[in-house]
């Protein structure tokens, strides 16, 4: 089973209490693709500039990620610079250079069109909708992400509502969920969002884990939510990409199974947590580039034992 992901492939500058890097490979689609590549075939749709190095493209290729949908164009790649203070759940954006992203018009290569899974990483909801429409034929499950900027600006918000109608599983954090639903209670916000289109909603609570809410009757079950903890890590070096890596583990695991039911979703929540926890142990994508399936499975067992009552 293959997953198409559309989103940013970027360079990041990151500062956290554990150190800093001036420029490293980043981007939401990059983190997603690396995390999902341990479970299934991943195909990227993105745009980069002429500063994008062969070495960085090889990072993706060496994980057997299909990069034919990465358009190379004149100019500079998307660049993001952020900083984390003691509260590692919150990134402070210091600089966003859209560069070649400004005129991004994503085209899904014809070789990708037989993919059954699609992930719309955090980009303009109009572009997300556009890619969703190009993939209408075979796609079985569409995951999506978004951020405050698209939720709060009145024009983008309208477009986001339109796009949400075509998203099966939305993955956002609790602050974003409250803003999207204009509702301070998370469970009530979840019920409101489930009326907007998504059939399932994953709300991430940073270092405290994540909860999946379902629309009654979808994926073979009732309305009751399921919560997975996050692994208590002693040192988080760089939280960048945690959400996208969670989404990669979550969607990647689902795509690797041949059914779409509650049990698969529950295990996917744990695999999402596993991949998120690896991502934050080192700066940038370093940890996600060279994992083994055995390391992933060992950590999955640790997660299970964290909540298992004999
Ligand atoms: P996360 O920490 O999971 O929210 O994702 C961080 C990644 O998203 C970084 O690698 C950035 O390059 C990328 N990013 C930051 N801002 C944006 C944006 N406005 N649009 C697309 N990607 C972004």
Note the main attributes of this structure:
UDP-N-acetylmuramoyl-L-alanine:D-glutamate ligase; alpha/beta; 9-stranded mixed sheet; binds adenosine monophosphate; single chain; 310 residues; 4-stranded mixed sheet; globular
Short structural description:
By secondary structure, this protein is of the alpha/beta class. It has one domain (2-305): UDP-N-acetylmuramoyl-L-alanine:D-glutamate ligase.
Can you walk through the features of this model?
With 310 residues, the protein is α/β, with parallel strands linked by helices. The protein has a single domain, classed as 3-Layer(aba) Sandwich (UDP-N-acetylmuramoyl-L-alanine:D-glutamate ligase). The strands form 2 sheets. It has a 9-stranded mixed sheet, sandwiched between helices. A hairpin with a 6-residue loop joins strand 6 and strand 7. Helix 1 packs parallel to helix 8, helix 6 crosses helix 7 and helix 9 packs across helix 11. The two termini are 35 Å apart. The mean pLDDT is 96.
Task: Explain the layout of strands and helices.
Layout: E1 2-6, E2 10-16, E3 19-26, H1 28-36, E4 41-48, H2 54-61, E5 66-72, E6 79-84, E7 91-97, E8 117-120, H3 125-134, E9 141-144, H4 148-152, H5 154-164, E10 169-173, H6 174-181, H7 186-193, E11 200-204, E12 210-214, E13 226-228, H8 242-256, H9 262-279, H10 286-289, H11 293-307
The site of adenosine monophosphate has 15 residues, from strand 2 and helix 8.
């Amino acid at each position: 089973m293959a997953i198409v992901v559309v989103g940013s492939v970027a360079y990041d500058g990151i500062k956290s209490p554990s150190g800093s890097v001036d420029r490293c490979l980043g981007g939401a689609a990059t983190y997603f693709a690396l995390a999902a590549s341990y479970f299934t075939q991943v195909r990227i749709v993105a745009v980069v500039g002429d500063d994008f190095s062969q070495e960085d493209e090889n990072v993706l290729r060496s994980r057997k990620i299909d990069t034919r949908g990465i358009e190379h164009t004149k100019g500079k790649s998307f660049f993001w610079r952020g900083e984390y203070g003691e509260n590692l759940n919150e990134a402070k954006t210091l600089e966003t250079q859209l560069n070649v992203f400004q005129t991004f018009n994503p085209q899904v290569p014809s070789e990708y069109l037989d993919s059954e899974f699609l992930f719309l990483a955090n980009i303009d909801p109009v572009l997300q909708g556009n890619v969703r429409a190009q993939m209408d034929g075979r796609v079985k499950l569409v995951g999506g992400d978004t951020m405050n900027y698209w939720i709060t600006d009145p024009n983008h918000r309208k477009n986001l509502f339109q796009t949400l109608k075509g998203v099966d599983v939305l993955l956002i954090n609790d602050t974003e969920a409250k803003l999207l639903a204009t509702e301070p209670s998370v469970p009530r916000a979840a019920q409101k969002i489930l009326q907007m289109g998504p059939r399932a909603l994953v709300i991430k609570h940073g270092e405290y884990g994540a909860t999946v809410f379902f629309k009654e009757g979808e994926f073979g079950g009732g309305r009751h939510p399921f919560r997975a903890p996050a692994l208590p890590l002693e040192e988080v070096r760089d939280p960048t990409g945690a959400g996208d890596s969670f989404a990669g583990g979550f969607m990647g695991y689902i795509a690797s199974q041949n059914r779409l039911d509650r049990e698969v979703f529950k295990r996917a929540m744990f695999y999402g947590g596993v991949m998120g926890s690896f991502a934050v142990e080192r700066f940038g994508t370093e940890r996600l580039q060279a994992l083994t399936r055995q390391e992933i499975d060992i950590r999955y067992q640790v997660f299970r034992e964290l909540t298992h009552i004999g």
